[in-house]
Design goal:
24% strand, D-Maltodextrin-Binding Protein, domain 2, 12 helices, seven-stranded mixed β-sheet, 308 residues
């Protein structure tokens, strides 16, 4: 009676991966000595492993006549399954090596819109040039939203504004940079303040501000600075994201307080005026969950951001 070999027998038995390699080598060469040379092992060791595999399966795999090696029915049944297992193992090895060597994978990065406009383009271009096979998924949002997305595992890394909103989940943060804020106005409008080279926050009293939406870090920082200077800011228009705010300023609707990096990249149609000392700054940090290490690709992007 012929004992059939099934994939279940192979996966649930105690056979070694190496034994399947030896079996396929003998099946393809129909010669024990040539098979041993092919897999770089001594012929007696290969023969012992084939016999151990046959004992494990409870069936002979080869008919051994002098000078003639042929497969038994059990061997014929095992051969395509063994080839499939070896091919799957090669594929798995390749996939892992691709990830380890950063030829494939993804990074899910969150950032505020101003950082997407000012900081990230150059860094992401450098990362993409070095690791073109890594998929970059960028989510724009305020720090409150990004912290929430980090906590639920939807992001690997996020660029957030310090201090973190409270209560905040357990995150690891490292300070990345301190952004200087400036005042932008339409190039065709009069300079803000008293027309000097720098303006105080107090000079914005009575000015019409183009203001970001609620929950936006720059909105909260600007409004707090105005109130500390003793006045309530007036809004010409409010509720936009960074691109909309810059567009409204270009159109002459009012002035806005934005990071210098954004103002520098904004191009024609804007006048950039610094704030007088001590000015305004915000601290940007790179954050990830403290209970889970970021994937390899995310750690590499983290390194590039910190070393930029």
């Amino acid at each position: 009676m012929v004992q059939l070999v099934s994939i279940g027998n192979i996966y649930h038995g105690c056979m070694q991966f190496q034994q399947l390699q030896y079996f396929v080598a003998v099946a393809e060469t129909r010669h024990f000595t040539r098979a041993a040379e092919l897999v770089h092992v001594a012929q007696p060791s290969l023969s012992q492993q084939i016999k151990a595999l046959e004992r494990e399966l409870g069936a002979d795999l080869f008919l051994r006549a002098r000078g003639n090696i042929t497969l038994t029915d059990a061997g014929e049944a095992l051969l395509p399954l063994a080839r499939r297992i070896l091919a799957d193992a090669d594929t798995a090895r390749y996939e892992v090596q691709e990830l380890v060597q950063l030829r494939r994978g993804r990074v899910r990065l969150g950032a505020t819109p101003s950082l997407c406009t000012g900081l990230l383009p150059d860094v992401l271009r450098a990362f993409h040039d070095r690791y073109p096979g890594i998929q970059l998924l960028v989510e724009e949002g305020g720090s409150h939203d990004l912290v929430r997305e980090l906590a639920r595992g939807a992001l690997d890394l996020a660029l957030v504004v310090l201090p973190l909103p409270t209560p905040a989940p357990a995150l690891s943060t490292v300070e990345l940079l301190r952004e200087e804020l400036v005042v932008v106005s339409s190039a065709e409008a009069p300079a803000p303040g008293r027309g000097g080279r720098a303006v105080d926050i107090a000079d914005l009293e009575g000015a019409r501000l183009v203001m970001f939406r609620h929950g936006y870090d720059l909105r909260e920082l600007t409004v707090a600075a105005c109130r500390s200077a003793g006045f309530e800011p007036e809004f010409a228009v409010e509720g936009g994201e960074m691109d909309a705010v810059l567009g409204f300023v270009r159109a002459g609707l009012g002035v806005a307080v934005v990071p210098r990096m954004v103002a520098t990249r904004a191009g024609l149609g804007l006048r950039v005026t610094p704030l007088a000392r001590p000015g305004l700054q915000r601290t940007i940090a790179l954050a990830h969950r403290s209970d889970v290490a970021p994937p390899r690709a995310a750690r590499e992007l983290q390194r590039m951001l910190l070393e930029r």
